[in-house]
Task: structure prediction
Amino acid sequence: MGTVLTRLVRAEWAKLFSTRVWIGLLVGACVLSGAFAALFTAFAGNPDSGLPPLDSPEYGQLAFSLATNATVISVVLGIIGITQEYRHRTATPTFLATPQRGRVVIAKLLAYAVAGIGLAVVVCAVTTAVVLLYGNARGNAPDLSGDNLRVLAFAGLALVIYTVIGVGLGALLKNQVGAIVAALVYLFVVEPLLRSVPATAGAYKWLPGGALEAMTATFQGPDLLEQWQGALLLLGYGLAAAFLGTLLAVRRDVV
Amino acid sequence: MHGLTKTFGKVRAVDDLSFTVEPGQVTGFLGPNGAGKTTTLRMALGLITPDTGTATFNGVRYAGLPAPMRQVGAVLETAFHPARSGRDHLRVYCRATGLPVGRADEVLDQVGLGPAGRRRAGGYSLGMRQRLGLATALLGDPSVLVLDEPANGLDPEGIQWLRGFLRHLAHDQGRTVLVSSHLLSEVEQTADRVVIVGAGRLVRQGSLAELRAGSAGSVLVRSPQVAALADLLRGDGTRVELTDGAPDGVTVSGLTTDEVGRRAFAAGIELHELRSHTSGLEEVYFRLTAGQEQYAARTEQGAA
Ligand SMILES: Nc1ncnc2c1ncn2[C@@H]1O[C@H](COP(=O)(O)OP(=O)(O)O)[C@@H](O)[C@H]1O
Ligand SMILES: [Mg+2]
Result:
């Protein structure tokens, strides 16, 4: 079983790296987080922007939390990882090679969790580089230590978990475009709305976005969980998505 | 396959279907479109869960085979990521099943796709896609091959190649081949046996020779005394009809040429022509499945 799973994880990586999709996603993630980091550094302390000044502790945590802007790419990476099998109908040869479909999905979850780690490391490095270099150029860069370092680590963890959530979501919805659109609408419309409407703001902290925000909490903002609670909650979402996705992929006919 | 049944909504795609495929032979799995061939094969391969019934390979369900790709190779449809090269596609399944990745190049050569292996599969012609599918099935060097409509969309040259290739796999290499088609002509030259389905049910199974024997032959006779001859031959189980376009000819069914000749000679009737006519296999297949196709179409509309 151990070796079977290793084989399957390797096969997933072979799939991932034999097309160029991953390059696009990686570049996109770096540009996204790097651009936000540059933008925030540029306007830090600017009274019109409402951003805290460069030398404040608030700014330090905010700057390193910007790596989480790439969570949308993580989700898409996970979604593509599984829905491409349905889109290009390779689910058939994949499940012919491994009729124990649960193993295939678990291998995908593992393979993409690791791919998510790779993505997170690069994104965190890019964010850090921009924050430090540009900050220094502007005269004052935050330290990469203490709370700041913890925020960066949690941001990286969030990127990994969002990749796993993407795999689970993809397994649930099967349709690639549908799953990506659903994820984008949820992340950029539904959650921000729930967060800002007073009636639902209380529930927001229990959503993935609320958990993410708790993990990389900056000082102002809505009512949130503790940092570690947020991490656990997000992990719970990841596992739930993985479990449901596995269950459905195993049960459904492949036609 | 034993007692397989599968219903999609109101459509009973496969209905209590049982048959056996003999080892070392090519078995043609025939039936009009919508007869349930694809559904049957997908159930056999563990991709669709049957409502009832089981399908086994040497007594073992597909999902229970210890190394399925090494025992059963299947081509169900051309499935590959268009941006991945044919070679990389094959290497993925080598990794997944623990086969050496070098197998990818071997099977590419085997199906004559060697030089195109490193190109993106999205740019392949239909024939090349079918070859890539076959190559995938052959990766594990399986003793059983299951192919669903492999000739679909192939040009005559591709079909010719496919026939030869299947014959080679079965007759020279001793593999068991189950190949589905809605056209008899596609399997007629390759298959040893056929299993014919219509509307999800078994219509007929047996060797091609048995199927041919089931085709009732008739005898064509020409004679200047055609009316007398017709009176003479007409009788129990014998049908005599005027032959179209030949005023002095009749078509006799139910008698052999020997018998017709003997009776005419005894009655002193002069014959100008006496020959047997066997209806082709195609006609037999058509007769066996003609009604089924309408039935299949009707149930489909009923569900819509
Ligand atoms: N996934 C499906 N959902 C609904 N109906 C289906 C599905 N697959 C096949 N059918 C129906 O089942 C019947 C048999 O289909 P199929 O097995 O594809 O036949 P064949 O391969 O012999 O052409 C058809 O009436 C078809 O419309
Ligand atoms: Mg079919």
